[in-house]
Amino acid sequence: MRVVAIIQARMGSARLPGKTLMKLGGRPLISWTVAAAKKTIGVDAVVIATSESPEDDAISTWCQEQDIRCYRGSRDDVLSRFYLAAKAEQADYILRLTADCPFLDPTICSQVISLIYREKLDYASNVSPPTWPDGLDCESFTFNALNAAFSETSLKEDREHVTPFISRNRDRFETRAVICPIPGLNNERWVVDWPEDLNFARAVADRLNSDLVPSFMNILKILDTEPSLRKMNMHVERNACSGKDEKEKKIDHINNFDRSNTMLKRARQVIPMASQTFSKSYIQYPTAVSPLFISHGAGGRVWDIDGNEYVALVCGLLPITLGYRDADVDLAIREQLASGITFSLSTVLESEVAEELVKVIPAAEMVRFGKNGTDATSAAIRLARAYSGREHILVCGYHGWQDWFIGSTTRDKGVPAAVKSLTHKVPFNDLNAVHKILTDFPGQCAAMIIEPMSAVEPLPNYLAELKELLHSYGALLIFDEIITGFRFALGGAQDLFGVIPDLASFGKGMGNGMPISAIVGRAEIMSQMEEVFVSGTFGGETLSLAASLAVIKKMQREPVIEKLWKTGGYLAEKTKRLIIENSLEEVISIEGRDPWIILRFSNYRGSKVSGDALRTLFMTEMLKRGVLVSSSHNICYAHNDADTQKVLRGYEGTLAVMRKALNSENFNNWLTLPYIKPIFKIRNS
Q1: Is residue 679 part of a domain?
Q2: Range of the domain at 213
Q3: In this structure, what CATH number is given to the domain that contains residue 162?
């Protein structure tokens, strides 16, 4: 096994020109990285990869003086530069380093090399996820993986940054990460990319023995001793200069779904519908031109198993409120994992999370946990029936897959008629309809469960008057806050509208993707659970509880909810303008509130083109443009400006196509796929 450390270096930095050879501790910046690479256990050779540009002659000269092999290649095609250097060095494994990381720790680099070799991986790093200080970055990959990237990708981003092709195609390449054992260090900035960074590095270097290669603990001790040093460059955002410039990036239409389509055939052999969820299955996406299997996610984006990248506007059907791989949630899970997952008795963590929910949810006096939304809503219904001694239920919204609710929909196969007869659907904002059911079944209605906010705003005083009406007939009010909780407000719609229900169910966003839900409510009702059998082996599973606690703390500490409203509002307003500009108001409308707006597709001119056909074309075109969306904007905290701009450019192209299709003589010429049909219509419009 031959391991070659290839250090990427250039003089032409736009932010700090000439930084590679600038002095740090009396010697060139690049020499620090070279020294660390040479001290890395397992490295057989250290070489430099720079460009053929005249400005980089100085780097070549320095390499000659230091007796370090230097390979020169394309200025912009860094991937080819690395490939040619690795091939010339006959490398089996490559350790990719950059010259702007002077405080690189050889011990960490050695761990990355050991990990990729011992686990027979294709790629290993300490950057994905980012748990180490920015400036300790090291990546290792096999020559075979590098060769695949060099041979197969032509994307500008892939050629400029060496490893995106490998890390994006996780279904093809085995990858793993070395995680920092000390939490919170991902917020440290030790890289040299701006003048402020250089000043910071010089201040740190002045406090080091410059003749020795420092450990990251040496740097950390200096900063902990003099915390004021961090202020020198703390305003610079991590990777602020390495992100994609979406405004200038050409949109390459995505049209390769070969691996997804092949995987679909395989999955259908062993999984009905090839999915655990109707809404995530192939029947809800355009046939043959959709990403049916996700490989991984990060922030506000996801990647499919074909390596295609998308802005995520589905976000797992709304549980991802913070973003994929949120550092705080991931850390909480890792720390709890070290103690165990499911135990024979209760844990303190259950009480800690329950206490936090009692603090933030107005209706919460007591709490019980479940694993999904249906657990919580079904527990609420059973509890209401037990408390009231009645059996009939009023429903308004979507409340899960259990018999008591799903029997009221068109997906009622397998539900006994006797169960169906106990559930009564009522329209949103219609007190008269509620009153009629209450009078038609006097003394028999236990409760009404309602999504207090979805596509339609509650009318002024509707929720308060609904509560009063139900109570006057001895029935309870249950809020289904599975979606609205941890999104519209930390305490849900009840916090937003000031109406406190008797019981409420929460889920989705409370775990940022981990399976957890909760039923909360008045103590006198919740205490019935000591007699009512609502029990589950995994109700107190600790990883999800730890994740939920991290979510709550983060939402209290940072402006998560405010950003959901701000990002969602910006995207909604721009989308409305684009709809108007393309004269599509007749067929596309926007409903709901900013953190979760819903797109409605109506029939064109009566029934010339159906709303289902329009939605199918919309999804097809948005997917081509790298936006994974169904018919709503499921905003997460991690969505940034680059994400929203990509979405809006997707809308620009998609809505223009839709307008042309409607203006054409035959709409089907633009869309020859089967139309997507809704599973069933639940939420009132």
Answers
A1: no
A2: 3-232
A3: 3.90.550.10
**What's the farthest any 2 CA atoms get from each other in the chain?**
95
Burial of residue 176, with CB atoms counted within 10 A of its CB: 0-12 exposed, 13-18 middle, 19 or more buried: middle
Query: How many structural domains are present in the chain?
Result: 3
Residue 431 pLDDT exceeds 80: yes
What is each CA distance from 229 to 192, 197, 222, 269, 303, in whole angstroms? 14, 11, 9, 59, 38
Decide: 626 and 642 in contact? Cβ < 8 Å. no
Domain boundary among 510, 525, 557: 557
Helix boundaries (H) for 507-632: 523-526, 542-557, 560-581, 611-624
User: How far apart (Å, rounded) are the C-alpha atoms in residues 229 and 620?
Assistant: 51
Structural tokens at position 81:
């530069």
- The DSSP bridge pattern shows strands 93-98 and 139-142 to be antiparallel
User: Is the per-residue pLDDT at 244 higher than 90?
Assistant: no
Cα separation, 314 vs 311, in Å, equals: 9
58 CB neighbour count, 10 Å cutoff: 15
CA 382/CA 400 separation, integer angstroms: 14
Q: Give the CA distances from residue 627 to residues 53, 288, 644, 657, in Å, rounded to whole numbers and listed in that order.
A: 37, 16, 10, 15
Query: 113 near 3, Cβ under 8 Å?
Result: yes
Take residue 143 and report the two structure tokens written for it. Answer: 């020559």
Residues 6 or more apart from 203 whose CB is under 8 A from it? 229, 232
pLDDT digits (tens, 9 = 90+) for 531-557: 888 888 998 999 999 999 999 999 999
Closest CA to 670 of 603, 622, 617: 617
Same domain, 23 and 114: yes
Percentage of residues in the chain with pLDDT exceeding 90?
A: 83
Residue 246: pLDDT band by 50, 70, 90 thresholds? very low
Cis-peptide into 416, omega within 30 deg:
no
Least confident of 79-93, 391-405, 664-678: 664-678
Tell me the sheet residues that pair with 70: 48
Q: Are strands 517-521 and 366-370 parallel, antiparallel or unpaired?
A: antiparallel
Domain's final residue, options 183, 203, 232? 232
